[in-house]
Amino acid sequence: MGDEALILARLQFAFTVSFHFIFPSFSIGLASFLMVLEGLWLKTGRGVYANLYRYWLKIFAVAFGMGVVSGIVMSYQFGTNWSVFSDKAGPIVGPLMAYEVLTAFFLEAGFLGVMLFGINKVGPRLHFFATCMVALGTFISATWIISTNSWMQTPTGFAINAQGQFVPAGSWLPIIFNPSFPYRLAHVVLAAYLTTSLVVGAVGAWHLLRDRTNPGARKMFSMAMGMVAIAAPIQIFVGDAHGLNTLEHQPVKIMAMEGHYESHPHGAPLILFGIPDPAAKRIDYALEIPKLSSLILKHDADAPLGGLDAVPDELEPPVAVVFWTFRIMVGLGMAMLGLGLFSLVGRVKGRLYSWPLLHRLAVAMGPSGFVAVIAGWVTTEVGRQPYTVYGYLLTAKSHSPLQASAVATSLLTFVIVYFIVFGSGTYYLLRLMAKAPAPHETEPAATPQRAAGITPAPAFAKE
Amino acid sequence: MSYSLDLATVWACILAFAIFAYVVMDGFDLGIGILFPTLEVGDERDQAMNSIAPVWDGNETWLVLGGGGLMAAFPLAYAVILPATYPLVIAMVLGLIFRGVAFEFRWRDPDHRAFWDIAFSLGSIVATLAQGIMLGAVLQGIHIDGRAYAGGTLDWLTPFSMLTGLSLLAGYALLGASWLIGKSHGSLQEHARKWAFRLGVLTLAGMAAVSIATPFLAIDYWQRWFRMPGVLFTAQVPLATLVVSGLFFWSLRKGRERLPFLLTLLLFALGFVGLGISMFPYVVPRALTIWDTAAPAGSQIFMLVGTVFILPLIISYTAWAYYVFRGKAATEGYH
Fold first, then answer.
1. What does the domain layout of chain B look like in residue ranges?
2. Which residues contact B226 (CB under 8 A, 6 or more apart)?
């Protein structure tokens, strides 16, 4: 397999994983939101929670289904396109992913049926339990897959055997709890919560702009903005800690993120904007603040920071991609913080439900979580290049012995199918969100084998 | 060659169980997809869909366990088989995408329900054919050099693999039809019974054809099945298959509702035992055994510790979910 096939295989992985990542980053947060809604309903008995639960459950059903099917693609792609990686790293990453299937996927799938269709088969308490299990499953799933990914970024606790395989050196704890895992997990889970809050907030704002008295729209907007106001600052703090961790274990990735082509022995500047010129190895039109990068990363304005000039060319990640995606992520993170603060002002002034500017901004920020999540993902994954297992296994030596034509065909097919399927799915999601939350939401999808008529479940009908 | 109960053998058994669980569970819901074009638009289709909507996701998770488990326990096998069957794996996952989203999309968009019904059906057929052809491709052997697949993109394409593909299509459709007999009433049940009979004949013909063709693929298969004294054991498999099929047709004629599905499961179990006789202890016949491909003990033990506790738990709550949705499926759809 030549370079073309390698590039195509990388494009295919990037394309399918980016698409896939959109759905879990929404469903992790949404499952927890549904759990909170149902819990509040059970506790207070207030109908607005039951209605919101049903409203978002339909949306969850569509999004979760797309996450499942796009995830199956991922579980086979390691073998189809990255067989050398699978052979070599399988003894480490395989068990981690197998635990994800055993402890998370089955839990989600097993209780999802009851969550979607079982409201009046099992009673409210058992149904709430099913919702909790689905939410727990999404969280456990994130934990294992982020551990796997983090091990590829900061591999520890392994040895290399005679066949060139990565094998556990002894205990699994240093493998699971590798150095970047806690930071990445916190960062990703918070990102999922933020993404969901921004979507829920945008939907609430959209309906408030039309009818500011709608109780469902008010409740969801208030809950979502509260979450954004809490999670955005924490996320910025966690992101900073994650960055310091990356500086410790993957300094070259930080150089690319910062756009530091040159070493700075006496304090490095923070480049706010600029255009990387990879050929000339410099940042053109750089707008920079002297010494701030050293201050952020080393907590000392005069601390020396190495640059890419000290790194052999073939071990450099693609700087422009990492540089830009990092700025997109950070920029959107700041905008989220701004929205959260704005909503606090609205809350204090008692205008949370009657401030069209706030609502318009919330609508505009609706998709920003997804963009930030993908941008951040690209930063960390492209920043890991040229390795699959950082420092030990080159991407160029990880792929399957496939012909370029085969990979090109599959990539093209994936692109076409994903645009048809997930394009339709996104359209259906938007259509569901465009409907105002009514006092009597219908049930999600088909409700098989229901004994009595088509009335909403008795448990949820009492208001 | 040692047949003692070592780690690799234990893992081979666990994965065989996962694959079997996948085949029969996703088998019946893929089978509903295969049968979908023969069902009438409206109540029949809605009822068939409703009978599997709460469980299909869990059923398909066994496929992820099969893939993930293979990578974890036998990474080299995973790294060889998947590139060897590349176009099939891609076709399978794409088929599963179309059919998986159809469960929700067909209710969300009544104007385009016909389109998503076709996607559901075609996706199920493509995924099934791909799985059946993959089975044939593995049985006929994979060209390996060192630790990697060394054949071309279309090596898997042979008359034998086409035969296994079509046989599995009949088999999954049979699972779907006999599942529907238990889950439906009225015209749909009549319809399912009629198809269960036809597909029973087709499935048995497929099993027979594959069984007859397999020993001609390689002398190794011949020896495994027909050498004394092993034949005294192996001959029980086709004999038992005959008995079970007789019971199956009898149960259909008697109008039994649940028995045909249970007997179909038994039929699949016998086919699975047959495959075991043909393959064990090879993962890639005549090339790689479970011991050649096994992950180091450290990896297999780590997984085993959890699996021993978690797998029974999974089986219990899955059984509970099936229990919650027991009985006949309703016809009403999206409101």
1. 9-324
2. B215, B234
Q: What single string gives the DSSP state of each residue in B13-29? A: HHHHHHHHHHHHHHHHH
B53 to chain A: which residues are within 8 Å by CB? 113, 116-117, 445-446, 448
Instruction: Please check whether residue A287 lies inside any domain of the structure.
Output: no
How many Å apart are CA A248 and CA A270, to the nearest integer?
18
In a structure prediction context, what are the per-residue pLDDT tens digits for chain A, which is 463 residues long?
467 888 898 999 999 998 888 998 899 999 999 999 999 998 888 888 988 999 999 999 999 989 888 888 888 888 888 889 999 998 999 999 999 999 999 999 889 988 988 887 888 889 999 999 999 999 999 999 999 999 999 999 999 998 889 999 989 999 999 999 999 999 999 999 999 999 999 999 999 999 888 899 999 999 999 999 999 999 999 999 999 999 899 999 998 898 888 888 888 888 888 888 888 888 888 888 888 888 888 888 888 888 888 888 889 999 999 999 999 999 999 999 999 999 999 999 999 999 999 999 999 999 999 999 999 999 999 999 899 999 899 898 888 888 888 889 999 999 999 999 999 999 999 999 999 887 665 544 434 433 333 333 434 433 3
Q: Six-digit token pair at B7? A: 């780690």
Q: Is residue A233 part of a domain?
A: yes
pTM: 0.89
Determine the Cα–Cα distance for residues A208 and A224; give it in Å rounded to an integer: 13
One-letter amino acid identity for A351? R
A:417-436 residues touching chain B, CB 8 A cutoff:
417, 421, 424-425, 428, 431-432
Domain-located, residue A413: yes
* Residues linked to residue A370 through DSSP beta bridges, in sequence order: none
The Cα–Cα gap between A45 and A40 comes to 8
The number of distinct structural domains making up chain A is 1
| Residue A320 lies in domain | 3-263+306-461
Count the residues in chain B: 335
ipTM for this prediction? 0.88
Q: Are A73 and B97 a contacting pair at CB < 8 A? A: yes
Nearest-Cα distance to chain B for A315, in Å, is: 26
Nearest-CB residue to A90 (from B50, B63, B71):
B71
For residue A286, being part of any structural domain is answered with no
Smallest CA–CA distance from A417 into chain B, residue: B94
CA distance A115 to A129: 9
Which residue carries 């998709």 as its tokens? A367
